[in-house]
Specification:
The complex is a heterodimer of chains A (114) and B (112).
Chain A: E1 5-7, E2 10-13, E3 19-24, E4 31-37, E5 44-50, E6 53-57, E7 65-68, E8 75-79, E9 88-95, E10 104-105, E11 109-113
Chain B: E1 4-6, E2 11-14, E3 19-25, E4 33-38, E5 45-50, E6 54-58, E7 61-66, E8 71-76, E9 85-93, E10 96-102, E11 106-111
Parallel strand pairs in B: 2-11
Antiparallel strand pairs in B: 1-3, 3-8, 4-5, 4-9, 6-7, 7-8, 9-10, 9-11
The chains are: A mainly beta (114), B mainly beta (112).
């Protein structure tokens, strides 16, 4: 399978715990995006990497959220001290970085904070 | 505020009919436009990209772009029950081809 993969697919945690998600992009893609989506909404941009550099982070993103992309390959998204409002689908997408920038999504990680 | 607007639906069409989905955007200099299909509980799947005015056809799908009217549409011919999903319109941010602005999606139901 050469598509974007994400792990885990589902995560249930208690409020206050830390969680970490992983994304493996399509191998030749140098751009990687994290989004969050709740029911009835479009994807909400969280952050973006070009290779290993984090070039943009949403101003709406709490300091509890951090992302890394070491060596420009896979990426991790960590949420510290989770809150019930963090419950959502966390989506990763990657692109080749060409001018029109088609983004391809992984299957997502469904987070439930109890 | 850059915006992408879609009718939320639900849009209901009989099997075999043409489904027409519409999207308007506010940023006049946007360059690229995308339609994604999203089944309930799944992630978005890219089904069409369009960059120039006019029509682009791919199988049963046709995307139409009119930059003067800031309007992009998706036609689905010979609709099938398996086309029942939410269709999301996404537009790149002008001068910044890294980020997409998303509509809320249109729910389509194709009735057998």
């Amino acid at each position: 399978d050469t598509g974007v993969s994400q792990d885990p697919r589902h995560k249930i945690t208690k409020r206050g715990q830390n969680v970490t998600f992983r994304c493996d992009p399509i191998s030749e893609h140098n751009r990687l995006y994290w989004y969050r989506q709740t029911l009835g909404q479009g994807p909400e941009f969280l952050t973006y990497f070009q290779n290993e550099a984090q070039l943009e982070k949403s101003r709406l993103l709490s300091d509890r959220f951090s992302a890394e992309r070491p060596k420009g390959s896979f990426s991790t998204l960590e949420i510290q001290r989770t809150e019930q409002g963090d419950s959502a689908m966390y989506l990763c997408a990657s692109s080749l970085g060409q001018i029109y920038n088609e983004q391809f999504f992984g299957p997502g990680t469904r987070l439930t904070v109890l | 505020q850059k915006e992408v607007e879609q009718n939320s639906g639900p849009l209901s069409v009989p099997e075999g009919a043409i489904a027409s989905l519409n999207c308007t955007y506010s940023d006049r200099v946007s360059q690229s436009f995308f339609w994604y299909r999203q089944y309930s509980g799944k992630s978005p799947e890219l089904i069409m990209s369009i960059y120039s005015n006019g029509d682009k056809e791919d199988g049963r799908f046709t995307a139409q772009l009119n930059k003067a009217s800031q309007y992009v549409s998706l036609l689905i011919r010979d609709s099938q029950p398996s086309d029942s999903a939410t269709y999301l319109c996404a537009v790149n941010v002008a001068g910044n081809n890294r980020k997409l602005i998303w509509g809320l999606g249109t729910s389509l139901a194709v009735n057998p």
